[in-house]
UniProtKB/TrEMBL annotation:
PROSITE patterns, alphabetized: RADICAL_SAM
Cofactor: [4Fe-4S] cluster
Keyword terms: 4Fe-4S, Iron, Iron-sulfur, Metal-binding, S-adenosyl-L-methionine
Protein name, as recorded: [FeFe] hydrogenase H-cluster radical SAM maturase HydG
Gene from which the chain derives: hydG_2
SUPFAM superfamilies with a match to the protein in the record: Radical SAM enzymes (SSF102114)
Organism encoding this protein: Desulfovibrio subterraneus
Length: 469
């Protein structure tokens, strides 16, 4: 693959972003309250407004930011929470990202790439647990091009078990490809393509990515452009927090989002905000150069919810359970659960292998434990994949979302998928708390909608599967 960056320019104006960060330090209370009033309209925020909210220091104002984020989150997304699991396919990698356990010069890491049979074994374990949405994760190695990645996706989709069903949406987190490569992934039916820029600060980026394809900042910066050009409507961006000043990276990431919107009429489908976690032989991951406190982290998630109200916010199991619980209300819309971060981990009877994994997981609970907690918290777990299969993606999805579609369709669909889960996979304890939640939600629908949903729920009870509106 040729890494052609001819004619590409860095649309992140570092000086301008720093100027915005400095100009918005210590914002006045009246200014913050004015921005929060605007944020309630769910039309997004400018970079300047986002900079102000990121730098609120006063506890009372901070709580006002959280309260506004909770309201916007509840209005747009209601009480549903999409669940997924990552599936690591290979930890072989030719890059040397200094923070990652998979880096090429980590000679202590045991390398492993799953065979098709091993992929089937992992998928079967995940299906038996009730998963319907997976995020496939790959190191970047010259041996593994787009055709090989596409083949692994096909293997996942083809692993269908009579007892436990099938994976309905495969998202991908792999190194940037060229347009032809992305077209190959599009043709095999991937959902979202994710690529995190890690940091948008070029000098820091260069120091942390000393060799391999990933050292080419512009090649990575335009990865999502190429994916969209290839027809992949849903793309996900992210920044790895702890590498550089989070205020800079968040404003830069939002500039990236705006750039996509300008070119393609729609911004990213999702945003991720991983924090650095300890990883084998990666000192920087134990001592992040720009650590971000829990308070700053929570505020950042709340502010993202206000800045890009219709973009999905993804939270991984890098965070511990207490933080994850708090972030549910503040803005997160997708949650990974029961995650394991090395190839072959789900079928591994001796799970817990620091010598193979990418980084340490902060929330080790099983999928079912996470489900019980979020149900107690009043959330409906969702595995819905209707939009993607009905072509409601990209710009089309965003237009619908802005018209209240999430509450009208995603909410009932979450109930249908949760009902399937309760029927096919849940233990008695989960059923005992889940079924009353489904009933309560159904009771709250207006009569016409209620009849439609009840008839679908009945059909699930009779054995039909994969129903959606
Ligand atoms: N290899 C591909 C790449 O780098 O784009 C995709 C997979 S990589 C395993 C997925 C993401 O893991 C990276 O983009 C990075 O943000 C994150 N990551 C790497 N090391 C990490 C660490 N020590 N703690 C938390 N996240 C980490
Ligand atoms: Fe390889 Fe990705 Fe890890 Fe970098 S972050 S070393 S590219 S797996």
């Amino acid at each position: 693959m040729q890494l052609d960056t001819k004619g590409l320019t860095n649309f992140i104006d570092e000086e301008a972003i720093w100027k915005t960060v400095r100009a918005t330090e210590n914002p006045e209370a009246a200014r913050v309250r004015g921005i929060l009033d605007k944020a309630k309209e769910a039309k997004g925020l400018t970079l300047e407004e986002t900079g102000c909210l990121l730098q609120v220091d006063d506890p009372e104002l901070n709580e006002a930011v959280f309260e506004t984020a909770r309201t916007v989150k509840q209005t747009i997304y209601g009480n549903r929470m999409v669940l997924f699991a990552p599936l690591y396919i290979t930890n072989e990698c030719g890059n040397r990202c200094v923070y990652c356990g998979f880096k090429a010069d980590n000679t202590e890491l045991v390398r492993r790439t799953l065979t098709p049979e091993e992929i089937r074994q992992e998928v079967t374990v995940l299906e038996n647990l009730g998963h319907k949405r997976l995020l496939l994760v790959y190191g970047e190695h010259p041996r593994f091009g787009a055709d090989w990645i596409a083949e692994t996706v096909r293997t996942v989709y083809d692993t269908v078990s009579e007892k436990s069903g099938e994976i309905r949406r495969v998202n991908i987190n792999c190194a940037p490809l060229d347009v032809a490569g992305f077209r190959t992934l599009h043709e095999v039916g991937i959902g979202t393509y994710q690529c995190f820029q890690e940091t948008y600060h070029t000098e820091t980026y260069a120091a942390l990515h000393p060799s391999g394809h990933k050292k080419h900042f512009l090649w990575r910066l335009y990865a999502l452009h190429r994916a969209m050009e290839a027809g992949i409507d849903d793309v996900g961006m992210g920044a790895l927090l702890g590498l550089y000043d989070h205020r800079f990276d968040i404003l830069a990431m939002l500039t990236h989002a705006a750039e996509l919107e300008k070119h393609f009429g729609v911004g990213p489908h999702t945003i991720s905000f991983p924090r650095l976690e300890p990883a084998l032989n990666a000192d920087i991951a134990y001592n992040p150069p720009h650590p971000i406190t829990n308070e700053q982290f929570k505020r950042l998630v709340a502010v993202l919810r206000l800045a890009v109200p219709y973009t999905g916010l993804i939270l991984s199991t890098r965070e511990g359970k207490t933080m994850r619980r708090e972030l549910l209300d503040l803005g997160v819309s997708q949650l990974s659960a029961g995650s394991r971060t090395y190839p072959g981990a789900y079928a591994d009877p001796n799970y817990d292998r620091p010598d193979v994994q990418q980084f340490c997981v902060g929330d080790n609970r099983s999928l079912e434990e996470v489900i019980q907690e979020i149900v107690h918290h009043g959330y409906i777990p969702s595995w819905c994949t209707a939009c993607y299969r009905l072509g409601r993606t990209g710009e089309h999805f965003m237009e619908l979302a802005k018209k209240g579609f999430i509450q009208e369709f995603c909410h009932p669909n979450s109930l249908l998928t949760f009902k399937e889960y309760l029927h096919d996979y849940a233990g008695n304890d989960t059923r005992a708390v889940g079924l009353p939640l489904v009933q309560r939600e159904v009771d709250n629908f207006p009569a016409k909608r209620r009849d439609l949903v009840v008839s679908r729920l009945d059909r699930i009870e009779q054995g039909e599967r994969d129903l959606y509106l």
